[in-house]
Amino acid sequence: MSISQEKFKEMLKAKGLKVTNQRLLVLEVLAEHRDKHMTAEDIYELVKEDYPEIGLATIYRTMQLLLEMQLVDRVNLDDGCIRYEIGGLFDGEFRHHHHHLICRTCGRVFPFKDDLLEDLEGQIEGKTGFRVLDHELKFYGQCRECQEKEVTD
C-alpha cells in the first residue's frame, strides 16, 4: 500500500473522524486491487474475509468518506454500476485519473495511463484562466481479441 496506515490514521484524525479497523481494511483492499474497478459489493466480499461482521452499509459509508478525502475516485463505466479505484490524493500528491478503453463487443475495460491532455489543459488555462484540476476520459471501441475473433468468424 503506497500510503501507510499511520498516514491514513492521521488524515482521519485531522478530519475529526474515528480510526476504525473497517476503514483501514477497506483502504487496504482498494490498494491491493489498484488496477481493478471495484463495486462496493466487490469490496464488501473481500473485506468480509478478514472482518466477517462488517455490513454492506458500512462499506458504502466508508467509500463516501474515502471519496470526500480524495483517496478514491468514483468511476462510471456505463454498465449501471458505480465503481471505485484508488486515486486523488492516495499517493500523497494529486494526480489525474488514468483513462479507460471500453470494448463495445465484450465489455472489458482496459486502463490507459498516459495523460495526453496536459497540453490541452495548458491551452485552456492560457485562453480562459480556467485551471483544469482533473478530467475523465473514456474511449469506446473494440479490443484486439474481439477484432481478431470477428476476422476468424
Report on the structure:
The protein has 153 residues and is an alpha+beta fold. It has two domains: 1-95, Winged helix-like DNA-binding domain superfamily/Winged helix DNA-binding domain (Arc Repressor Mutant, subunit A); 96-153, 2-Layer Sandwich (Dna Ligase, domain 1). 43% of the residues lie in helices and 15% in strands. It has six helices and five strands; from the N terminus they run ααααββββαβα. The protein has helices spanning 5-14, 21-32, 40-50, 56-68, 118-128, 144-152; strands at 72-76, 82-86, 99-103, 109-112, 138-141. The strands form two sheets. A three-stranded mixed sheet has the order 4-3-5, with no helix packed on it. A two-stranded antiparallel sheet has the order 1-2. Strand 3 (99-103) and strand 4 (109-112) form a beta hairpin. The longest helix is centred in the middle third of the chain and has 13 residues, at 56-68. The radius of gyration is 18 Å and the shape is flat. The relative contact order is 0.12. The model has no long low-confidence stretch (mean pLDDT 83).
CATH topology (fold) name of the largest domain? Arc Repressor Mutant, subunit A
Binned strand content: 15-25%
The unreliable regions are none
Rg on CA atoms, Å: 18 Å
Q: Mean pLDDT, rounded to whole units?
A: 83
**CATH-defined superfamily of the largest domain:** Winged helix-like DNA-binding domain superfamily/Winged helix DNA-binding domain
Number of helices: 6
CATH class of the largest domain: Mainly Alpha
* Order of helical and strand elements: HHHHEEEEHEH
The profile of the biggest β sheet is: 3 strands, mixed
